[in-house]
């Protein structure tokens, strides 16, 4: 390996000056079908030109990196990416009930990765439908809890409030609620929504404002709305609207 040209990570982004698309020229559009190929090809110049950076994965340098990761993580090993994310995780946890193998859980997990949540908690069945996660769970800490009581005691042991998300009688509007910074947000599943045990265990249950005819939105969409509300509150310092709707 040569010495690293850019140990801060930029060297792993676009070594060939191709804008992170395909520096080695090995990707492009091999099928010639106009299909956009994600990521970067092999590091140009082969092993003698590889940067001396322990975060980089020799297999990715050799073969190219086609993973769905940000450009700053190109060629990094999975372990190195997890370590970098661990250093800056946000203190919100995202929990979701999983009694019926709901296909939407993957979408919740993917958004939790995007906001760099501290952890994801699957409550109920251990096996969950990973399809919508697009392997983003690889870079997250995913825990399993057999039931809501187990999640509640895990949260209580860490002093974390358990806040449910569902539009049920007694729910508080998300738009006027000051979300705690350190928190476990618990989502229900398509169909039944939060279970009676979950509603009982939560200190507050939040409803997202709706104005149409449908009873609810998709749980993946609901999770994205609430996680973004957390980001607005605790990354951008935007206070919720006091006094309710205009
Ligand atoms: C399809 S909803 C289910 C139930 C809903 N209470 C009903 O009456 O139909 C599934 C999950 O999505 C989330 N969800 C959907 N719409 C919501 C909303 N307007 N406010 C809060 N959560 C919502 C909740 O986590 C809920 O448990």
UniProtKB/TrEMBL annotation:
GO biological process annotation, one example: methylation
Q: Where is this region: Disordered?
A: 1-53
- Origin, by domain of life? Bacteria
Q: Where is the tRNA/rRNA methyltransferase SpoU type domain?
A: 92-228
Output compositional bias ranges, type Low complexity.
Answer: 32-41
Named from the GO MF annotations, one term is:
methyltransferase activity
Return the Gly residues bias intervals. 8-31
Provide the alphabetized UniProt keywords. Answer: Methyltransferase, Transferase
Q: Has UniProt tagged this entry with the keyword Ligase?
A: no
Which PANTHER family is this protein grouped with?
RRNA METHYLTRANSFERASE 3, RRNA METHYLTRANSFERASE 3, MITOCHONDRIAL
User: What is the recorded name of this protein?
Assistant: rRNA methyltransferase
* Species, as recorded: Kineococcus glutinatus
């Amino acid at each position: 390996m040569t010495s690293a040209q850019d140990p801060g990570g930029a060297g792993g982004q676009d070594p060939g000056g191709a804008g992170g698309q395909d520096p080695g020229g090995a990707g492009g559009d091999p099928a010639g079908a106009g299909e956009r190929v994600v990521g970067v090809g092999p590091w140009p110049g082969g092993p003698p030109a590889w940067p001396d950076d322990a975060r980089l994965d020799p297999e990715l340098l050799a073969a190219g990196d086609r993973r769905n990761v940000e450009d700053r993580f190109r060629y990094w090993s999975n372990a190195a990416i997890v370590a970098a994310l661990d250093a800056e995780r946000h203190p919100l946890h995202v929990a979701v009930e999983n009694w019926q193998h709901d296909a939407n859980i993957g979408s919740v997990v993917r958004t939790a990765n995007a906001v760099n949540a501290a952890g994801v908690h699957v409550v109920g069945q251990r096996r969950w439908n990973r399809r919508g996660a697009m392997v983003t769970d690889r870079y997250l800490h995913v825990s399993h809890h057999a039931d809501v009581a187990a999640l509640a005691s895990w949260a209580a042991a860490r002093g974390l409030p358990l806040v449910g998300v569902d539009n049920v009688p007694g729910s508080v509007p998300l738009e006027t609620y000051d979300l705690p910074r350190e928190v476990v947000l618990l989502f229900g599943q398509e169909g039944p929504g939060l279970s009676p045990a979950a509603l009982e265990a939560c200190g507050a249950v939040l409803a997202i404002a709706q104005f149409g005819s449908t009873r609810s939105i998709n749980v993946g969409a609901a999770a994205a709305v609430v996680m973004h509300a957390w980001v607005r509150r605790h990354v951008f310092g935007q206070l919720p609207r006091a006094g309710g709707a205009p």
